[in-house]
Structures are given as C-alpha cells and as structure tokens.
C-alpha cells in the first residue's frame, strides 16, 4: 500500500469497509488464477492416466503375461473402433452431452470456462492417444506413449510446484474468505450495543495483513527453492 493511500482506522465502519474491499480484491485474484490451478491439476490426471495405460501394456509384454503381438492387436482393435464411424459419433455425442449438462447446471461464464478447458484437455489427450496407438510398430507406440505422457505429466507437476499456481490460487481464496469472515464479525460487533471499537480490533486487522504477507513470502520461498531442497534431501539421504 502506498503511503498516500494510508487511511486511519478509527471505527468498526472503517475496518468493515477495508475487509470487504480486501475480500473482493482477493476473490477477484482467485478467479483470475483459477484457470491456472485448474489446468495444472487436470493435465497430470488425464496424461497420467494414459501413461499408466501404456506402462501396464509394456509391463505385460516384459513379464510375458501377454506377448507383444497380442498387445499390438489390442491397440489396433482399439484404434479401429475409436476411428470408425460409430466410434467417432459416440465420442462426439459424449463430449456434447457432458458439455451440455454442465452448461445446464452452471450458468456462469467463469465455470463454463473451467469446464471448456477440461473438455479441451480431454480432447487433446484422446487425439494424442489415438495417434500413438495407430503406429504400425507397437513397441514404438508403447515407448512413445510413456515418454510423451510421462514427460507432460511430470513437467506440469514440477511447473506447478516450482511456480506455485495452485498455492497462489488457494492463498487468494483462503484469505478472501478470512477477510469476509472478519467483516461479518465486526459488523456483528457493531450491532451489539455494549461493544466499542478498541485497539484489540485494530491489532486483529494488522495481524490479518501480516499473515497474508507472510503466507505470500513463505510460499514464494518454498516454491523457488523446491528443486534445491529436493536435491539436498536426495544427497543427504
């Protein structure tokens, strides 16, 4: 806060206004960063699921549970089914149904954007999966699938952990709700005839902003030095 923006807090009204303003500001930031959190949490789920599928196929071939030829036939049949007229129609209808149901239940553009991102990520994952299993060389398909989806999965997890997308969004949401709760608390105290504004209430307000500052600082330090701390633990262990 700049020096010329500093206000003197002398009553419940001042602190209620300040908390409501801070809550709205943090809530807006939470909504603006929600898509980053949403994407960074969804990609590992979708890509990781496909990676596990290819890992299971590779494991079956290496342990001789199923020969590579049978695994290749399974992938070929799956590819033919998904790319057939019936398969394409079923996938389109499924995506349309899921999207339509979500639009019906949530009428806000904010939630619609989140769901659209999820559908887009599912579509991209499905197309990449179908492209890989269509390879003639099924050994190459398995290795490519594991390498591609494994890289995507762990890269997004690492990026989220080091850049703090999820932490930042959750911090904004948490402190927005805390500020809203404090505003409600002081509004209730104001309505009580025997209550009067005191230094204790001012200290609670100062403590809120100090917690917000420390949380931001600690999260930034933790995210920035995540890789270094991880390496140190590995070396020490």
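-> sequence recovered:
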């Amino acid at each position: 806060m700049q020096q010329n923006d500093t206000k003197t807090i002398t009553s419940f009204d001042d602190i209620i206004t300040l908390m409501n303003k801070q809550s709205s500001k943090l809530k807006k930031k939470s909504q603006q960063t929600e898509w980053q959190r949403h994407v960074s949490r969804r990609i590992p789920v979708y890509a990781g699921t496909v990676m596990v599928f290819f890992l299971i196929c590779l494991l079956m071939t290496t342990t001789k549970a199923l020969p590579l030829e049978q695994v290749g036939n399974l992938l070929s049949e799956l590819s033919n089914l998904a790319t057939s007229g019936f398969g394409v129609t079923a996938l389109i209808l499924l995506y349309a149904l899921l999207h339509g149901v979500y639009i019906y239940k949530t009428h806000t553009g904010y939630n619609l954007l989140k769901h659209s991102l999820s559908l887009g990520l599912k579509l991209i994952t499905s197309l990449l999966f179908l492209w890989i299993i269509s390879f003639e060389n099924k050994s190459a398909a398995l290795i490519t699938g594991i390498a591609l989806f494994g890289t995507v999965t762990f890269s997004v997890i690492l990026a989220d952990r080091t850049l703090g997308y999820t932490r930042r969004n959750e911090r904004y949401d948490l402190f927005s709700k805390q500020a809203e709760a404090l505003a409600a608390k002081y509004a209730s105290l104001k309505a009580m005839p025997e209550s009067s504004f005191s230094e204790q209430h001012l200290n609670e307000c100062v403590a809120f902003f100090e917690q917000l500052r420390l949380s931001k600082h600690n999260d930034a330090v933790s995210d920035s030095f995540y890789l270094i701390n991880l390496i140190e633990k590995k070396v020490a262990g």
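The radius of gyration is 26 Å.
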